[in-house]
Amino acid sequence: MSLNEQTELAQRKKAKKMLLWFSMISLAMSFAGLTSAYVVSKERADWLENLVLPSAFGWSLIAILLSSLTFEWAKRVLSKEQQSQATVLLWATWILGIGFITLQYSGFSEIYNDFGYAFTGPTSSIAYTFIFLIVVLHVFHVLAALIALSVVIYNHYKQRYILGKTLGVELAALFWHFVDGLWLYLFLFFYFVR
């Protein structure tokens, strides 16, 4: 590979990472706006005083943090071209991502069935409606991260991540860590700001 080709490749890699960073910053600002609206709405007379988070949300936090570890580990072994170990770790990450979404659904079921609150209607609460809205929006971003991970797994099977060409893995891992960090923030926010 010539020096010009290496320079062009490095510039494209930097541009793609910068675009992803701008996107993630925009998403973070959106969630900051939603959590700010949550804080402002706490002053409403109909706000629940004893808001309880479903236990499934705590378990989902563990699942998503573990998925970040497995994805990071997969990224490292891929850079060392340890293909079979990377396969196991990528699939473990994917399964933990699906587990996270399943646990989020369980949390919604807990709010509805055990706490008695719906998303809208006569049995709704503005507090739980905010939680539903913010969590569902986050789940959509986790689904996007799962799609990116699925592309990484497909490309891994096609052996496209060899000889240091791991930009796809790096971008997917960066986004995955972002949605994980976002859930950590949201969970702590809901836990402490009731």
Protein architecture, described:
- It is a single chain.
- The chain is an all-alpha fold and 194 residues long.
- It is 79% helix and 0% strand.
- The protein has helices spanning 3-41, 55-79, 83-114, 126-157, 167-192.
- The longest helix has 39 residues, at 3-41.
- The chain starts with a helix and ends with a helix.
- The model has no long low-confidence stretch (mean pLDDT 93).
Question: Would you kindly provide a brief summary of this structure?
Answer:
The chain has helices at 3-41, 55-79, 83-114, 126-157, 167-192. With 194 residues, it is an all-alpha fold.
Question: Overall pLDDT, averaged?
Answer: 93
Amount of beta strand: under 5%
Q: What is the CA-based Rg, rounded?
A: 20 Å
CA-CA gap between termini: 57 Å
- From the spread of the alpha carbons, the general shape counts as elongated
Report on the biggest sheet: none
Helix content: over 70%
> What structural class do you assign from the helix and strand content?
mainly alpha
Low-confidence stretches: none
Number of strands: 0
Q: What is the element string, with H for helices and E for strands?
A: HHHHH
Number of helices: 5
Note the topology:
Blueprint: H1 3-41, H2 55-79, H3 83-114, H4 126-157, H5 167-192
Key terms for this structure?
single chain, 194 residues, mainly alpha, elongated
